[in-house]
């Protein structure tokens, strides 16, 4: 299961739309490793003033890797984070997540190319 949904959030969803802040809280508590990576990248992006912040550190174990994959594979989770923090997310391999400023279109476009994906491959990542 991707998320552990509290009863009040489930009730909110049953009544209608779910607030992004509440959904992000659910993400953070359900997927703590993934949330630590993404929120840290958001902080790094704002602190640096650059176009992007990205992660090069592989997860410590398969459970952590699974959290990151579940968060980044979900359009709903990615969308909520992107809207709430006004960023764009991108992903390569099993751990290289990146956060972009919304206007960093060239940097984002380069990150998501086949060339960039191929250059990011290493033998250690073959089974990730």
Secondary-structure map:
Elements: H1 7-15, H2 20-30, H3 32-48, E1 52-54, H4 62-73, H5 75-85, E2 88-92, E3 96-100, H6 105-111, H7 114-119
Antiparallel strand pairs: 1-3, 2-3
Helix pairs in contact: 2-3, 2-5, 3-4
3D structure, described in words:
- This protein is mostly helical and 128 residues long.
- The chain has one domain.
- It is built from seven helices and three strands.
- The chain has helices at 7-15, 20-30, 32-48, 62-73, 75-85, 105-111, 114-119; strands spanning 52-54, 88-92, 96-100.
- The protein has a three-stranded antiparallel β-sheet with strand order 1-3-2, sandwiched between helices.
- It is globular, with a radius of gyration of 15 Å.
Report mean pLDDT, rounded to a whole number: 89
Strand content: 5-15%
Write down the Rg: 15 Å
Tally of helical segments? 7
Model regions low in confidence, pLDDT < 50 over at least 5 residues: none
Number of strands: 3
Order of helices and strands: HHHEHHEEHH
- How far from one another are the termini? 20 Å
Q: How much helix is in the residues?
A: 55-70%
Number of individual domains: 1
Largest sheet: 3 strands, antiparallel
Structural class: mainly alpha
Name the strands of the widest sheet in spatial order: 1-3-2
Molecular shape:
globular
